[in-house]
Inverse folding.
């Protein structure tokens, strides 16, 4: 069952909290929240951003591995993402931490509603959360406390600017922390890269390309059980190229081989690579090589 949560006020009510002091932003003490019995098993679709720092969450999946983690874990949820409501029955310690809830309407000032969209980690799934070091956790709590202080004092003309400035700085640091995490988990990234390359190779050596057409990032992310954004971030760390760039590189390499070593027509080459229309293939080939497929074939044979 999917349950829409349309406002921060509604979230407060469901989780047994007092109404928020501001309708568009709230900092919630996670230890004071509760999950009603009739909400267990639901999937929530919230209409606002949620940034959560949680402790004592027990076992959690990260990428394709399971870790025991009882210190700071930071997750980012964008509006309309699905969140499963399920307490951990094996964890006897009550989770604690903070939830920063922000409606997009609050972010229009200073164009923050556009800048926040550049952070890929809002598209990661919950099992791809950020594992914080003790120093990082302390820094995050400081930001939350600064925002709480602003929310608890009399709001004035400066309050929103100060809160958005803190949020902007916090998101930049979160991106740095994620980069640190990708680097320290290099083996996991290498495993993801190798599995991705194996799947990419198999895509064109089996009937998959004829069944599904052009390969997509979503297809490989589904096969690897991770989110598309997380897949691209892991591959960028391992290779400096995103998943889409690696797919394009493979397409162009295969196209060059077929153009140079076969008598297939341009349309036939496009079809074997998953393109529905040869014009789309020619457009991509020229964008990547500065040559049309016909010109490449001619220059190669000459």
């Amino acid at each position: 069952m999917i349950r829409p949560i349309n406002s921060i006020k509604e979230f407060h009510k469901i989780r047994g909290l007092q109404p928020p002091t501001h309708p568009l932003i709230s900092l919630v003490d996670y230890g004071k929240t509760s999950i009603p019995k009739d909400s267990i098993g639901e999937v929530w679709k919230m209409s606002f951003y949620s940034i959560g720092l949680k402790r004592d969450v027990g076992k959690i999946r990260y990428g394709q591995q399971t870790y025991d983690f009882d210190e700071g874990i930071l997750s980012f949820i964008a509006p309309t993402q699905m969140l499963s409501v399920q307490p951990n029955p094996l964890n006897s310690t009550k989770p604690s931490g903070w939830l920063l809830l922000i409606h997009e309407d609050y972010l229009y000032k200073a164009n923050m509603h556009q800048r926040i969209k550049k952070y890929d980690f809002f598209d990661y799934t919950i099992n791809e959360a950020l594992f914080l070091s003790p120093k990082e956790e302390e820094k995050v709590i400081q930001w939350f406390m600064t925002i709480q202080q602003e929310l608890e004092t009399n709001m004035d003309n400066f309050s929103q600017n100060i809160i958005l400035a803190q949020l902007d700085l916090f998101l930049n640091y979160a991106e740095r922390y994620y980069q640190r995490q990708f680097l320290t988990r290099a083996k996991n990234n290498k495993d993801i890269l190798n599995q991705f390359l194996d799947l990419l190779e198999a895509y064109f050596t089996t009937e998959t390309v004829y069944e599904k057409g052009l390969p997509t990032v979503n297809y490989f992310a589904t096969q690897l059980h991770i989110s598309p954004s997380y897949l691209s971030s892991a591959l960028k760390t391992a290779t400096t190229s995103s998943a889409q760039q690696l797919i394009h590189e493979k397409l162009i390499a295969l196209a060059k081989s077929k153009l140079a070593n076969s008598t297939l027509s341009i349309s036939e080459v496009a079809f074997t690579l998953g393109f529905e229309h040869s014009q789309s293939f020619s457009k991509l080939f020229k964008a990547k090589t500065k040559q049309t497929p016909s010109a490449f074939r001619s220059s190669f044979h000459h």
Q: What stands out?
A: Strands lie at 2-5, 25-29, 43-46, 49-55, 59-62, 65-68, 73-77, 82-84, 96-102, 130-131. The two ends are 63 Å apart (CA to CA). The longest helix spans residues 159-184. The chain has twelve helices and ten strands.
